[in-house]
Amino acid sequence: MEPDRIIDDVGLPEASTSKSVGTGRHFPDDDDYDWQPNQRPHDLDMSYSEILSGPLGEELRVDSGSEEEEEPMSLEELRAILEETAEDVEEDPEEHERLSESFNWSSDYSTFRGQPEVYSQAGERGPNIKETDPLKLFTHVWDHDIMNSIVAQTNEYAWQTIAQASELPDGISAHSRLNDWVETTTDELYKLFAVMIFMSLMVAGRVSEYWSTGTLAMPGFRKLMSIKRYWLLMRFLHFVDNNTISVHGSDRKVAKIQPIIDHCNKKFNSMYTPRREISIDESLLLFKGRLSWIQCIRTKAARFGIKFYELCEAVTGYLLKFEVYTGKKYPQTGDSAEDSLYGFTSASAKVVLRLMQRFLNKGHCLVMDNFYNSVTLTRFLKLNKTDVIGTLNRRRMGTPRDIQILNERKLQKAAVVSRHCGDVSVLSWKDVKLVTTVSTYHNADMLPGRRAGQQILKPVVVHDYNKYMGGVDLKDQMLSMYLMERKRGMKWYLKVFKRLINVSILNIFIIHRENSTNPLSHRQFRYKLAEQLAQKYPNLTLSRLINPPALLRLDGDNHFPIYADSLEDRAGSKRNKIKRNRCVRCSLKKIRKEVNTVCQKCQKFLCLGQCWIEYHTLENL
């Protein structure tokens, strides 16, 4: 099976080598080398079907890369060799026959029609806002609308938590931080962002060390914000009211952070027009807590964590659009129209199409690896004026059978087998391992290169793939120096929020670098941004509320009992079993009793009768 991650062994590595093709050491290309005939690739110009069905007795010469004159090889001998090297391919015969009718593969590249698309936004490429000041760029992303929303949800969640804690038998302890809560403001949240940026510039083993008074003390942090206030803000930082979450299935998993995800996707896309080359790949946010959709990708630096599907500009690493992976999505109704996107039912293909919705029909060149690629997806993107370069899993449906049956172990090194259909070209190249690529405008042309002092040839499509595949890895590489999301953390959505703040700073740094004639370095840019946030929003005198918001259960208005909703299974269908849970009042009395009646306003499970009356009348439960 073709490897998913191979390192470039032909030329110098680009920004990242995790998706490059080839293995070995890196040496610069030498274009002036005088090539000898024995460096030519071994090229088979007849298809497998032509060899098996052709008339016997004909003689043909197969180039093996040797200068010595070879004896002609009969078609019968060549047929025996190919049958010996062919592998069994797992496939659906009916599906393969259907795809074979839509793709008529040929080895004659004189009929290849693939041409690069014309990029329609070449004159608009670059930042859409002409600004270089770090603070103005940052507040353009995190504007007052989204900040006011975060402030409102944080204050509401804080009072909800305090109210629930006060309902416990022992109430709130006199030494609890909850007694010191004061409602936050937009200016204070900007100050909190400054603290986070400074933390990423000077990494400490524990958060408390930033406020220590010993030899390694950082007095500046105590001037910015007290540690008690920092812990309170991080505990109550919230983005959506839990009582208003009504979505189900996989959408419910990210509902706590969905407003921030939508906001960032909108801002990132509107602030920048990318170059022609863009790439799709996965990114991993380190998280080892209990979460049902944790992923393990051993080729990533984090290895375990929350996976993002990201679309980045290939050259700069600018993040254009992303989505969070929340596990396998089970079909809802079985309706093909609902479960497919543009006719595609493959999960990986739908990820590509969702990320590319705003970038189709503009002439972009999309670079992606064999996790996403397929011949049918490549043809669809080409029909929508989007070029494709990438590696290909040759076991996938639609791949030319001549390439599907290749036996990697029996192919000679530097062998090339290529087929095309109209404007889609598929090429297999035997380097250290067999690599298969797909492209919408590359033919079987080769480029010279050097490895370990020896001259080799590599396909042009492999060179371009290695050059433009590293967009997401380049972004991760630049973020790894200033990790704002710390290793330890109980709330996964707070880590996602910190990652989005960090990515937004990287994006505006790229805009600053594009707009400025004398740009700051990445570290200087972050330091200046943190200083500007700290100076513009100095320490504020926050007034404590004399009377905190009244408890919802005691307002005496519209507290009606209803039955709990029916449970839903993974397919989204209703079960006959009604949802039940423990009575809140009985739990405080150390009595275990499950009921299916809920207060319509408080959303608490309660027994009808005495428990209902006590819960809605007693100040201290």
What's the short version?
This protein has 621 residues and is of the alpha+beta class. The protein contains 20 helices and 22 strands.
Overall structural class, as computed from helix and strand content, comes to alpha+beta
The main β sheet shows up as: 10 strands, mixed
| Cα-to-Cα separation, first versus last residue | 64 Å
Q: From the alpha-carbon coordinates, what is the Rg to the nearest angstrom? A: 30 Å
- The number of helical segments is 20
Helix content: 25-40%
Which shape, going by the Cα principal axes?
A: globular
Chain-wise SSE layout:
Elements (H helix, E strand, L loop, with lengths): L41 E2 L4 H6 L5 E2 L12 E2 H11 L7 H10 L23 E2 L6 H8 L2 H23 L19 H16 L17 H6 L2 H10 L13 H4 L4 H14 E2 L3 E10 L8 E2 L7 E10 L5 E6 L11 H4 L7 H9 L9 E4 L6 H9 L3 E5 L9 H4 L10 E7 L2 E7 L3 E6 L6 E6 L2 E6 H9 L2 H9 L12 H24 L6 H15 L24 E3 L2 E3 L5 E5 L2 E2 L1 H5 L5 E2 L1 E3 L10 H6 L6
Parallel strand pairs: 1-12, 6-10, 10-11
Antiparallel strand pairs: 2-3, 4-5, 6-8, 7-8, 8-9, 11-14, 12-13, 13-14, 15-16, 17-22, 18-19, 20-21
Helix pairs in contact: 4-17, 6-18, 10-17
InterPro entries: PGBD (IPR029526)
Protein name: PiggyBac transposable element-derived protein 4-like
Organism: Trichoplusia ni (Cabbage looper)
